[in-house]
Amino acid sequence: MSTDQVPDSPSSSGSPDARYPRTVRDGMLLAVVFFSGMTVLGAELAGSRLLAPFYGNNLFVWANLIGLVLLYLTLGYYVGGRIADRRPDDRLLLRLVAIAAFGIGLIPLVAKPILNLSTEAFAGLSLGVFWGSLFGVIFLFAIPITILGFVSPFAIRLSTANLSSAGANAGRIYALGTLGSIMGAFLPVLLLVPNIGTRNTFLAFALVLLALAVAGLKSWRFLTLLIVLVAITVIVNVRPDVVRAAERGTLVYEDESIFNFIQVQDTDSGMRRLVLNEGLATHSVFFPALEIQPLTSGPWDYFLLAPQFRKEHPGQVEDVLIVGLGTGTVSKLYNQVYGDRTHIDGVEIDPQIIDIGRDMFDMNEPNLNAVAEDGRYFLRRTDRAYDVVMVDAYRQPYIPFQLTTREFFEEIQSHLEDDGIVALNAGRAPDDFRLVEALSKTMRSVFPTVFVIDLPAGYLNSLIFASNSPISLDEVNRRLSETDDVWIRAIAEKGVNPRPVESSEGAFTDDLAPVEQVIHQMILGVAQSGDGSVNTAR
Fold first, then answer.
1. Cα separations (Å) of 59 from 77, 87, 133, 328, 514?
2. Where are the alpha helices (DSSP H) in 346-485?
3. Closest by Cα among 12, 134, 153 to 69
């Protein structure tokens, strides 16, 4: 064999091609595989939090994120395999990994202008949630994730010494990469994002992977990349930037929890508002300068009507459950209207929101039992019966399906007094009540009386009330018109026109609850009509 020929079999050193002798041991190569897999999943999980302040944390954003990351990996596997066959050079692999790691570290830094651009580009269309997130993910993740897709085929090509062990070697590489991915799936959720934030989570994964590549390359040029990334990490933590400016008034608090991107904003009118994720809706309000909280003119006020509709005990309430406590707007109003002897269980899935409520919204009523838990899980373990159950946990525009089904309302019914009332806040589009109809029909499949009160112009909310005992609309209207309570009368005078729900056709179930499809159809309808975006008070 002449010296310029390439041998058909790998050399004794384990290199498949004598022209590219191995420069790192198998241990280093396997470490690159492990940490690359961890970085891909870690970036994907952290990416959902990066997109949430702009597009929310919903099914369509997740579909874009997961689908495109898989597309980038597919492209990376294919292209990386071809490159590995043509040039099985471990130093080339390490250089590519270093570039990809540096790119992962830059994602949170360039995200804000790119995502702002995508939201502005689609501002005139309610399709922005889908296409905007698609646009953002394409530009943010395409290059580094595609390059990290090179790693597995490259590693298999480099570490396969002979054909008899090719299968076992490929299995080892994919198992190790998958193990890294498992670590990348859990670390951001359980440890990194709640403690150091989304931006630092990206930087942490990037720094570890880049440091590993630099250690293998022993190159001053790539060491410079590591130094630059370390400097960037220090600078952004010394001079933190606001993720999203306040839409109204002054931003007084901004942070991210394990569940939400959270902002607290003070408006010029003296109102403090809780804003979550993409900022489409205000989730709680409070007036810090006022000892007695006024009516909000929003959906929270209408929850006060619920006790008036009890068949046997109108206007009386002793035990209340709020699923979706927020920072306590409804609980505070209930104390003012019905007295502080009322026991209130307030369930909020995000413990950080409860802490913010106590610290910044004066949510410190002694009769309020604030529980950080999923609402449906709380129902399954409590033995208390309630006079009123309120559901205000629907985060716009996409809402958790498990709180929309017949089984969920059956669980509520099992904890209601005989004449107990359920009140639910549902969002809608200007002339599209599909979501309201779907939820009210589902409730009607469980309760004998269901009626809807649509909020006045300016709010895209409807309150759905369900009674555990039959009650006529004539009786409901009579109670509202004859009430002596100044709070209830003030709400009724705004124009409360309850309408009955008679049908339960198409009720959502745990097995089939196409709530995302319903809302997506609403969004498409708004986009086609050119009537603006779906936006609600909550």
1. 27, 41, 11, 27, 11
2. 351-360, 375-381, 406-413, 434-444, 473-482
3. 134
3-class DSSP assignment, residue 60: helix
Residue 287: CB atoms within 10 A of its CB come to: 16
Calculate the dihedral angle through the C-alpha atoms of 95, 101, 106, 112, rounding to the nearest 10 degrees. Answer: 130
Per the CB < 8 A criterion, the answer to whether 404 and 508 are in contact is: yes
pLDDT of residue 160: 81
Q: Which pLDDT belongs to residue 129? A: 55
Q: Which residues of the chain have pLDDT under 50?
A: 1-15, 123-126, 532-536
**Residue 302: both structure tokens together:** 């209408």
The type of residue at 65 is L
Q: Which residue has the tokens 């009160």?
A: 453
Write the DSSP string, 111-154. Answer: HHHHHHHHHHHTTT-TTHHHHHHHHHHHHHHHHHHHHHTTHHHH
Q: Rounded distance, CA 285 to CA 265, Å?
A: 10
Give the burial string for 75-109 (b: 16+ CB within 10 Å, else e).
Answer: bbbeebbebbeeebbbbebbbbbbbbbbbbbbbbe
In the numeric block, which tokens belong to residue 138?
């394409």
Q: Is 160 exposed, middle or buried (0-12, 13-18, 19+ CB in 10 A)?
A: buried
φ, ψ for residue 85 (rounded to 5)? Answer: -70, -40
Question: Cis peptide before 153, with omega less than 30 degrees from 0?
Answer: no
Beta bridge partners of 450: 466
Residues 490, 305: Cα–Cα separation, whole Å: 11
Alpha-carbon span 132 to 110, nearest angstrom: 16
In tens, the pLDDT along 32-73 reads 999 999 999 999 999 888 877 666 666 667 788 899 999 999
pLDDT at residue 533, as a whole number:
44
* Cα–Cα dist 363/21, whole Å: 67
Alpha-carbon distances, residue 107 vs 113, 229, 242, 384, 434 (angstroms): 11, 12, 16, 48, 38
pLDDT recorded at residue 44: 92
Round to whole Å and give the CA distance between 180 and 368. 44
pLDDT the model gives residue 80: 94
Pairing of strands 250-256, 499-500: unpaired
pLDDT score at 457? 72
Q: Which pair of tokens denotes residue 23?
A: 């420069």
